[in-house]
């Protein structure tokens, strides 16, 4: 059945477009956001990633691998944008970020916000290889294997880099 | 003086990250309050990190109309694709016209460069036909005098001069 669906979609990729966006948008956006740290840029890049994925959908042999495919596309696009506009990119600050369930009330949350902002800065200071692995690992539904697939590195390497990243963060987040 | 507990620093971090205490570290912790306190501190930091890290990526979401925007952009892109054959032909035609115009322009320019204006041609002709006034001496009766006059070697050194006939 999935083969039939895949064939049908290959002939008419726009048919399942809305469904695929709905299923992947959150993760795709978060990958871009992790690298760019800016909602507007992340949304632009996520949109571009979906468009590119759909334009070349026919060349994707296994339609069920769409998620992994679009992950790689958005990651590359985000990195390209980061390189191209490094000086211009402005990270969202804590007050610009939408409220999350953890931010409920009182001074405790204010303190958490400060800590979160500090953590973001410390992540930015991590060596690039460690930072990228950490940022991708933080995206929902992204297991070590998924991160490895995006970066083109073995799962074991993902785990060891993640371990090194957390260790550095533990040292600096006193 | 160097802190003697410095050597345990890395092992404390590893202990928290891996969740296992090595026998050596365990023994040290029984006797060292500084390292025990440090271990508790690292444990607290790890717990805080565990809470904060998920928030780093979840701090922002795509906007509510994101899906609609992507679909609209996809529609626009496919519209553009459909319209492309006409555009391609239009561009090809325009390019061909420009190339032909350029070729004609270049040919005319080269031809014009090769053509010589009438007055320039007349001046060149004059230049070709021009003779120096001294050229006239060679065909005047003066030539005879030059032939019969004694030559330099003949007058002073008595060297027989070859006549034109002997030559």
Low-confidence stretches of chain A: 1-5, 94-105
How many strands, what sense, and barrel or not for the largest sheet of chain B?
none
Major sheet summary line of chain A: none
- Mean pLDDT of chain B equals 80
Distance between the termini of chain B: 118 Å
Instruction: State the helicity of chain A in percent bands.
Output: over 70%
Our measurement of the CA-to-CA distance between the termini of chain A, rounded to an integer number of angstroms, reads 54 Å
Low-confidence stretches of chain B: none
Q: Identify the most extensive interface between protein chains.
A: A-B, 44 and 32 residues
Tell me, what's the shape of chain B?
A: elongated
Radius of gyration of chain B: 54 Å
Strand content of chain B: under 5%
Number of strands of chain B: 0
Number of helices of chain A: 8
Radius of gyration of chain A: 18 Å
Describe the overall structure.
The complex is a heterodimer of chains A (174) and B (167). Chain A contains eight helices and no strands. With 174 residues, chain A is an all-alpha fold. Chain A starts with a helix and ends with a helix. The model of chain A is unreliable at 1-5 and 94-105 (pLDDT under 50). Helices cover 71% and strands 0% of the residues of chain B. Chain B has seven helices and no strands. Chain B starts with 8 loop residues before the first helix and ends in an 11-residue tail after the last helix. The A-B interface holds A 14, 17-18, 21-22, 25-26, 29-30, 33-34, 39, 42-43, 46-47, 50-51, 54-55, 92, 94, 97-98, 100, 102, 112, 115-116, 119-120, 123, 135, 138-140, 163, 166-167, 169-171, 173-174 and B 13-14, 16-17, 41-42, 45-46, 48-49, 51-63, 66-67, 69-71, 73-74, 77-78.
């Amino acid at each position: 059945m999935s083969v039939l669906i895949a064939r049908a979609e290959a002939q008419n990729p726009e048919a399942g477009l809305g469904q695929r966006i709905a299923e992947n948008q959150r993760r795709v956006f978060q990958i871009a956001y992790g690298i760019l740290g800016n909602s507007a840029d992340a949304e632009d890049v996520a949109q571009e990633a979906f468009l590119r994925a759909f334009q070349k959908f026919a060349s994707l042999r296994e339609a069920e691998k769409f998620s992994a495919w679009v992950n790689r596309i958005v990651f590359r696009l985000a990195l390209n944008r980061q390189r191209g506009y490094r000086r211009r990119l402005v990270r969202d600050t804590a007050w610009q970020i939408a409220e999350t369930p953890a931010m409920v009330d009182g001074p405790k949350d204010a303190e958490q916000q400060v800590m979160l902002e500090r953590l973001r800065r410390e992540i930015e200071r991590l060596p690039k290889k460690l930072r990228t692995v950490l940022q991708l690992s933080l995206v929902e539904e992204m297991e070590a294997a998924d991160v490895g697939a995006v970066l083109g590195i073995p799962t074991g390497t993902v785990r060891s880099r993640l371990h090194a990243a957390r260790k550095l963060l533990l040292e600096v987040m006193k | 003086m160097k802190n003697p507990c410095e050597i345990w620093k890395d092992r404390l971090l590893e202990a928290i990250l891996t969740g296992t205490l090595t026998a050596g570290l365990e023994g040290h912790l029984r006797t060292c309050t500084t390292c025990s306190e440090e271990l508790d501190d690292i444990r607290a930091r790890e717990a805080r990190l565990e809470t904060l890290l998920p928030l780093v990526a979840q701090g922002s979401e795509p906007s509510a109309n994101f899906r609609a925007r992507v679909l609209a952009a996809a529609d626009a892109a496919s519209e553009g694709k459909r319209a492309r054959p006409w555009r391609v032909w239009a561009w090809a035609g325009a390019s061909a016209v420009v190339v032909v115009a350029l070729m004609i322009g270049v040919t005319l320019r080269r031809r014009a460069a090769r053509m010589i204006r009438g007055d320039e041609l007349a001046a060149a002709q004059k230049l070709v036909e021009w003779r120096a006034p001294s050229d006239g001496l060679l065909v005047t009766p003066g030539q005879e005098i030059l032939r019969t006059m004694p030559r330099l070697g003949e007058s002073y050194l008595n060297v027989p001069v070859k006549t034109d006939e002997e030559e």
